[in-house]
Amino acid sequence: MSEVLGGARIGVITFPGTLDDRDAARAVRLAGGQAVSLWHGDADLKNVDAVVLPGGFSYGDYLRAGAISRFAPVMDVLIDAANGGLPVLGICNGFQVLTESHLLPGSMIKNEGLAFLCKEQALIVENADTAWTRNFTAGQQITIPLKNQDGQFVADEKTLDMLEAEGRVVFRYAGENPNGSRRGIAGISNAAGNVVGLMPHPEHAVEAGFGTAAAAGPRAGTDGLAFFTSVLGALVNA
Amino acid sequence: MGRVVVDVMPKPEILDPQGKAVAGALPRLGFTGFLSVRQGKRFELEVDGDVTPEVLAAAREAAERVLSNPIIEDVVSVVDAASLDTVASA
Fold it and tell me: Where found (chain A) (predicted)?
């Protein structure tokens, strides 16, 4: 791990019902960063250099997925910081929190097939210029886990056209559309590219032996790691 | 004690997977006359005292800002529960 990257501090927010905060923090550490725990009830980002909103079922997904988390004290300061350029990654439930916060457009509804999906999902990286994807190449296919119930991305046609035209579709499902998401969209960014949200889980594919299926072995895939090295690199070069 | 009833429905252009699943189950139970089902949400907000125009206005704002997501849902009604009871018993 690079010592240069060791100084970057990446915050991971925990809401009541968050599941994947420990995995996200571990991914940050494996990428060479320092993980900083942030609490939903504190309006304090502890001077972190970037923030991950992890997956889970914050507030039990009551009302709508991510809807109640959006009004947590930490979100007020996060929304301001994100609008000021702070890199923010929303994974699964974190993505839903970002759409409910209007940091990202669109919304998620129940999967088309109604089933909770849990599988290894191939994605195409469409935009390799965001803070969280710069260590990929555009058009690259990656495989990371997908596990959710409310994963169907929806937005009106005008918004979808805008996202496509501005290169803000960051990830698209490769092959069959697993959940009915409009235009196969798996992840998007804001206009500046510092805020990225996606339904699949990069933090679960960051260490050989515990990752996704790959040529080197059934759990050898570590395609998720580049999300975290990307942001650390972006911070160093900022 | 007053009560405001807020109804929220998925937008017409948004496919409603839950409603579709319910619609699929009805014929199996012998209910063959229903062409489609859409599933929404009903909220009941209690207040201390009467449902004044101010209370209704606040409920309407809460409905737009929190109880619904305007990207996927419409607030279809925000009414004093007492008015619904009158209709029901009429």
Answer: Cytoplasm
Q: CB-hemisphere CA count at 13 Å for A237?
A: 9
Contact (CB<8Å) B18/A180: no
Length of chain B: 90
Which ipTM did the prediction report?
0.79
Inter-chain CB proximity B17 and A111 less than 8 Å: yes
Q: What is the pLDDT of residues A158-180, one digit of tens each?
A: 999 999 999 999 999 999 999 99
Alpha-carbon distance values, A53 to A117, A151, A229, B57 (Å): 20, 16, 17, 34
Q: Which member of A67, A152, A180 has the closest CB to residue B69?
A: A67
Chain A residues with CB under 8 Å of B72 CB are 107, 109, 154
CB contact residues (below 8 A), chain A span 160-179, against chain B: none
Residue A140 and residue B78: Cα distance in Å, rounded?
A: 49
Q: CA B68, CA B51: separation in Å to the nearest integer?
A: 21
Tokens of B5: 């009833």
Q: What is the mean pLDDT of residues A3-28?
A: 89
Which residue(s) pair with A30 in the sheet? none
pLDDT digits (tens, 9 = 90+) for A78-99: 999 999 999 999 999 999 999 9
Domain count, chain B: 1
B67: domain CATH number is 3.30.1280.10
Positions of A annotated as catalytic residues are 92, 201, 203
Q: DSSP state, B39?
A: -
Chain B residues with CB under 8 Å of A180 CB are: 15, 17
Structural contact between residues A204 and A112, judged by C-beta atoms closer than 8 angstroms? no
Range(s) of the domain holding residue B29: 2-89
Q: Which CATH number goes with the domain that contains A193?
A: 3.40.50.880
Distance from CA of A102 to the nearest CA of B (A): 10
The single-letter code of the amino acid at B33 is: G
Name the minimum distance, in Å, from the CA of B30 to any CA of chain A. 23
